[in-house]
From TrEMBL:
Protein name: diguanylate cyclase
A GO biological-process term: cell adhesion involved in single-species biofilm formation
Membrane-spanning ranges: none
UniProt enzyme class: transferase
Pfam families: GGDEF, PAS_9
Keyword tags: Nucleotidyltransferase, Transferase
Domain of life: Bacteria
InterPro entries to which the protein is assigned, alphabetical: Diguanylate_Cyclase (IPR050469), GGDEF_dom (IPR000160), Nucleotide_cyclase (IPR029787), PAS (IPR000014), PAS-assoc_C (IPR000700), PAS-like_dom_sf (IPR035965), Rev_trsase/Diguanyl_cyclase (IPR043128)
Residue intervals of the GGDEF domain: 181-318
Keyword Transferase: yes
Length: 319
């Protein structure tokens, strides 16, 4: 049986040797524990910070609050400003989590750190300390970023995303220029989608986007036709080798198939169902023109479809 002081010593010893970087502040914001992992992570020794409130110097070059300080000072409402990447109440008890890139002043490295901080109370519910643990998530963050960069599919709709579209447009442009074949683009935008979201909520809005995306995809018959979620409630179809007449036909087919879905849109001034405004453009790619110009033409045509009362398609004059 170990007595109270021995128990305390044991607990401190345990914390010193934890694999996770950990430090503890008293209610004045002074460091009372700075474990070995924390020394390794920050390059700052316990001797330098114990009894001081200089712990911030391990993570930042200018004075600012750390996660544990916000709990001690009752300033957790400032977390959103302090941690740009994320900050949210922890799922464990009454602690907080936050993540940030830090340029570590002592070791001179840029690290992505995930911090958890939790208050410690005595038997009377009085705050006596705050413990903060820090995990170096730099490798995971870099890997995640690389994966995101490689991703070409829009998560919600399963269509290709804009990054893919940009690459694909460039290569199809070059191919069509080589072969002397036309390249068409259809831009599609859901009418009064803000009102739809406002009326039914964002989740129903997401379902609507999925239905519209699926219908656009199913309306394309050739393997070389590509449907993309351009962003928000805007979609784009790229049609290599298709003339203006063919592209207009496909646009009309998409429009008709969307109408058939009969997705109720009671707050739309133009129809009781969800409808699209569509811009079509076709170009014979050449060295004197650019893919950006094709998109601009389609965008202007879509704008005219909107301005003309929505729920219609408009074709850019390029012939
Ligand atoms: N549910 C949901 N809504 C989205 C998503 N992306 C964008 N939106 C919403 O789409 C709406 C687009 O609004 P606006 O650009 O004003 O366009 P609009 O209301 O369709 O008006 P018009 O295009 O002029 O007919 C905004 O309310 C966005 O919040 C998404 O992924 N899910």
């Amino acid at each position: 049986m170990i007595n109270k002081p021995e128990q305390t010593e044991f607990a401190i010893n345990l914390m010193q040797h934890l694999v996770t970087a950990t430090f503890v502040l008293d209610t004045d914001g002074n460091v009372i524990i700075w474990n070995r992992s924390c020394e390794r992570l920050t390059g700052i020794t316990a001797d330098e910070v114990i009894g001081t409130s200089n712990h911030w110097k391990a993570f930042y070059s200018n004075h600012r609050l750390c996660l544990a300080d916000t709990i001690i000072e009752g300033r957790t409402n400032e977390l959103d400003n302090l941690y740009t990447v994320s900050a949210q109440p922890s799922v464990y008890g009454n602690g907080y989590k936050a993540e940030n890139w830090c340029v570590m002043p002592r070791i001179g490295k840029r690290l992505y750190l995930a911090a958890d901080a939790g208050p410690i109370y005595d038997n009377h519910g009085q705050l006596i300390a705050v413990v903060e643990t820090i995990r170096d998530q730099t490798d995971q963050k870099i890997a995640q970023k690389k994966l995101e960069e490689l991703a070409v599919v829009d998560e919600l709709t399963g269509l290709f995303n804009r990054r893919y579209f940009n690459d694909h447009l460039d290569s199809e442009w070059k191919r069509c220029a080589r072969e002397g074949s036309p390249l068409s683009v259809i831009l599609l935008d859901i009418d009064y989608f803000k009102q739809y979201n406002d009326n039914f909520g964002h989740l129903v809005g997401d379902e609507c986007l999925k239905s519209v995306a699926g219908t656009i995809q199913r309306s394309l018959l050739r393997g070389s036709d590509t449907a993309t979620r351009f962003g928000g409630e805007e979609f784009c179809v790229l049609l290599p080798g298709i003339q203006q007449k063919g592209a207009t036909k496909i646009a009309e087919r998409i429009c008709a198939n969307i109408e058939k879905l009969e997705i109720p849109h009671p707050t739309s001034p133009v129809s009781q169902w969800v409808t699209l405004s569509i811009g079509v453009a076709c170009i014979l790619p050449s060295e004197n023109d650019t893919p950006a110009n094709l998109l601009t033409l389609a965008d202007e045509a879509m704008y005219r479809a909107k301005a003309g009362g929505r729920n219609q398609s408009f074709c850019a004059e390029t012939d």
